[in-house]
Specification:
The complex is a heterodimer of chains A (165) and B (147). Chain A is built from five helices and five strands. With 165 residues, chain A is of the alpha+beta class. A five-stranded antiparallel β-sheet of chain A has the order 1-2-3-4-5. With 147 residues, chain B is of the alpha+beta class. In chain B, the strands form two sheets. In chain B, strands 1, 4, 5, 6, 7, 8 and 9 form a seven-stranded antiparallel β-sheet that branches. In chain B, strands 2-3 form a two-stranded antiparallel sheet. Helices cover 19% and strands 31% of the residues of chain B. Chain B starts with 11 loop residues before the first strand and ends with a strand. Chain B is globular, with a radius of gyration of 15 Å. Chain B has three helices and nine strands. Classes of the chains: A alpha+beta (165), B alpha+beta (147).
Chain lengths: 165, 147
């Protein structure tokens, strides 16, 4: 049975609100490690401090490697890492302050950042796409898409156990 | 059998898991590894596991290193997708032998997990995350580190 907060997210997800793309500074990258250190022209890293804490050093380095992958990395037309998805991911973790234990970061063939972790032995998976945050909760078997704002609100209310002290 | 024929439930199939869909550090994949349209798998009834892995390494490693494989069965896919009709599509594992080309090696064991709309059999669909997760988590699924 879904919790009240999960039901709220499903309801919100049904509206399929569109998330406005966030501007990023990728065009100004001149090399190095912008996710870790920011941009060479002094612009800040697109990753919020909260997102870096959630990822951990290994996760940030992994995301950096994703940024180096060329288009068609799967041999089937996969996209490069999406700046908009990185920005949405960053903002989500800044808004929620979530810091789940054992969070793993992935990239979809569309270049979207995806993360998953176990909450009480049940998988939680999120993908930060152009149309919102795609979510999957193994515990209830529910999945859908919600606006970034709605998803953040959901986690602020419903997943306190995963939030770092 | 010919391309397009349905693969029997008892057959074992192998899916390549590679960065960025697989985390060697966390030793788990994302369900996205099984949610793309027409998921590539290979049949151990046609080629030995080691030969399949060599094809994966040759064709995929250049862009993104193969680090693991998910070994499962057609039966697991069928079970995980048993309720797909409620979502408006049907799922089948079908033969899809690949000939040698510039882009890829010959793979006589190649098959695809295909989801097609019930309303329009030509419309390609993808598995839900729940179905994909069930395949990954199945007791008959194992992860083997290749590199």
């Amino acid at each position: 049975m879904a919790s009240a907060s999960e039901e709220a997210m499903q309801t919100t997800g049904a509206r399929r609100e569109i998330v406005s793309p966030t501007e990023t500074n990728s065009s100004r990258v001149k090399g190095g490690s912008p996710l870790l250190c920011g941009y060479t022209d002094g612009a800040p890293s697109p990753l919020s401090e909260a997102a870096r804490l959630a990822l951990g050093d290994d996760g940030v380095e992994r995301l950096e490697r994703f940024g180096q992958l060329r288009a068609n990395w799967d041999g089937q037309g996969a996209h490069t890492l999406s700046d908009d998805s990185v920005a949405a991911f960053s903002q989500f973790f800044r808004d929620t302050g979530l810091r789940p234990d054992g969070l793993a970061v992935f990239m979809s063939r569309y270049g979207n950042v995806a993360v998953n972790w176990f909450d009480a032995d049940a998988l939680v998976e999120l993908e930060f796409a152009a149309d919102g945050v795609h979510y999957f909760f193994e515990r209830t078997g529910t999945e859908g898409v919600a606006s970034s704002y709605a998803a953040a609100a959901f986690f602020e209310e419903g997943s306190k156990s995963a939030v770092a002290a | 059998m010919a391309n397009g024929d349905v693969v029997a439930d008892h057959e074992q199939i192998v899916r390549a898991l590679y960065e960025p869909l697989w985390s060697a550090e966390k030793k788990r994949a994302t369900s996205l590894a099984f949610t793309q349209v027409d998921v590539s798998v290979s049949r151990t009834a046609i080629l030995p596991y080691a030969s399949i892995v060599e094809i994966f390494k040759k064709d995929i490693s250049a862009a993104s290193p193969v680090v693991a494989t998910c070994v499962t069965s057609v039966a697991v896919v069928s079970t995980a997708c048993a309720n797909s009709s409620e979502a408006g599509f049907i799922v089948a594992v079908v033969e899809d032998r690949v000939e040698e080309s510039v882009a890829q090696s010959a793979n006589p064991a190649h098959a695809e997990i295909r989801a097609r709309s019930i309303a329009d059999p030509h419309a390609k669909m993808s598995l839900t995350r729940g179905m994909a997760n069930a395949i990954l988590k199945s007791g008959k699924t194992e992860i083997r580190t290749v590199e």
